[in-house]
Amino acid sequence: MAGGKKRWTIGEAETTPEKLFFSRRALLGLRGGAAPGLTVAGLGLDRIASTQAEEPAAPLPAASPNGRFRAAGPMTAAEDFTSYNNFYEFGFSKDIVRAAQRLKTSPWRIVVDGACDHPFEIDVDDLLEKVALEERIYRQRCVEAWSMVIPWTGFQLAELVKMASPKAEAKYLRMETFHDPKVAPMQSAPQYPWPYVEGLTLAEATNELAFLAVGAYGKSLAKQNGAPLRLVTPWKYGFKSAKSLTRFTFTAKRPVTFWQELGPREYGFWANVNPGVAHPRWTQAYERRIGDDERVPTRLFNGYAEEVAGLYTGLESEKLYM
Ligand code: MTE
């Protein structure tokens, strides 16, 4: 929000989500001991923050709204979506907008490889000419128990999967964020398993909800939101929706994700939203809506059970909700 402080910034110290956030930050700090050198000043982030201005978003090709995906509830204000972020490569606070402006998002190469018949490498602009862009309004539920409703522009991940034509042995799609410690200061800290890695089963990746976003609110994605290309899996906790992707790899082996490697007792591979399964250190029964600060009940699969519950039959012995 231009000018004054956000309401949740003022009240943050007293609210549960702030405590949750610091719990998570504690996890980041705990790995490998006291995380020496991981202060903002130690990594020069304070300097970056004062010198980088936010760039205007590039124009986005036209995309028609897909009426089948229109989450109910108040839409989050664009300025909240672009200023309250998790992008740990650029810092451990929600305020990483300026630091993220160092990321150069054009040109941007994407590699699609692994167990597929048609591996390829492509610039994101060329990729956009091969896919049908559409707008979908999805809920986003962060594991920290805050939520947003966001109009994304992008295309189904299934389209990219189809282009690569995965082999029969490909059971998973591993996705990787850029890795450039010169640009992203937190990637200089060796105790973290950079680059940020996420993964889906092939069945999840080809589910119609799985989306690759290149824009939001009718504009190209802002850098802090994961430009130029990010995953959006609205039935899973937000950390699955990896930002600024550079590599997609088909594999027979289940990938170990960034958060799993960092905190295996707290974060798993599946990360499906479930209000009945608490995080080991906090409840997931409710969420705080960013914008009006309303505390609302969380829904199974974040309200997308109809579309995705069938993906998990026969997997009941797995830790599907962490
Ligand atoms: N992707 C990368 N590469 N690095 C991150 O730190 N944070 C995740 C996810 N994707 C993250 C990431 C988390 S925890 C959330 S809740 C969402 O991005 C937040 O997306 P937003 O800031 O665009 O709302």
Describe the structure.
The chain is of the alpha+beta class. 19% of the residues lie in helices and 22% in strands. It has helices at residues 7-11, 16-30, 45-51, 78-81, 97-100, 124-129, 157-164, 202-205, 258-262, 305-308; strands at 64-70, 109-114, 120-123, 134-141, 146-156, 172-177, 197-201, 211-216, 219-220, 230-232, 245-251, 286-289, 295-297. The strands form two sheets. Strands 1, 4, 5, 8, 9, 10, 12 and 13 form an eight-stranded mixed β-sheet that branches. Strand 2 and strand 3 form a beta hairpin. The radius of gyration is 19 Å and the shape is globular. It starts with 6 loop residues before the first helix and ends in a 14-residue tail after the last helix. The site of ligand MTE has 16 residues, from loops.
Q: Termini distance?
A: 32 Å
* Major sheet characteristics: 8 strands, mixed
Mean pLDDT across all amino acids: 88
Report the total helices. Answer: 10
Structural class: alpha+beta
Q: Helical content, roughly?
A: 10-25%
The shape is: globular
Bound molecules: ligand MTE
Structure summary:
The protein is of the alpha+beta class.
